[in-house]
Amino acid sequence: EGWACLFVDLRGQGSSGKAPVSFGDRERRDAAVAARWARSQAPDVPVVLVGSSMGAAAAVLAVADEPGLADGLILDGCYRNLHEASRGWWIMLAGPWLDALLRLTMPIGSLISGLRPRQVSVEDALPRLDGVPILMLNGDADPIVPWASAEANLRAAGDLAELHRFAGSGHGHGRFREPVRFRALVSDWLKNRFAPRDISDPRP
């Protein structure tokens, strides 16, 4: 639709080199580098970060760390905090029994990885994005991001954020279950927020 796009494989993903995956915590650095590079190529053009799941969390954390990094965010299935998301991942894979079985491994995993899941919080980072418009897209059958958590993120983000529900959709599944609606929401939001308008256009 005429938007310039930069597609990025985060560390340990796709064609990027092997690296430990931290589910958004360290990946924020990758998102920041990509955003800075995009800004350097077109300093006067708005930069919008688009991410799903881990990529969405990385985008929020990056902009919270570096105000002015991006002019907008599109977040698909963005978790509330890594602790909740980790437990939800096990439930999504094999049900509540796996959560009960593996819950005791979380402290060990934290020691090995150096991550503190309770401290990796999108909800806490969102208020630091003051003035950045945000489009949130979430399924209401998502075990990683329960609908209550999506609403908590919306409250934390403030007045410039909007949240759209995909009924019956799991984690990041809205774009597959309702692709026409998903695309329209993203396209319309971008056009309304960032598309240049002809001054002769009478529309608001």
Q: Summarize model confidence as the mean pLDDT.
A: 85
What is the helix content?
40-55%
Specify Rg, calculated over alpha carbons: 17 Å
- Any low-confidence stretches, pLDDT <50, length ≥5? 198-204
Query: In which order are the strands of the major sheet placed?
Result: 1-2-3-4
Give the strand content. Answer: 5-15%
Explain this structure.
With about 200 residues, the chain is an alpha/beta fold. It is built from 9 helices and 4 strands; from the N terminus they run H-E-H-E-H-H-H-H-E-H-E-H-H. A 4-stranded parallel β-sheet has the order 1-2-3-4, with helices on both faces. Strand 3 (about 135-140), helix 7 and strand 4 (about 160-165) form a beta-alpha-beta unit. Mean pLDDT is about 85; it is low at about 200-204.
Q: Which properties best describe this structure?
A:
single chain; 204 residues; alpha/beta; four-stranded parallel sheet; disordered C terminus
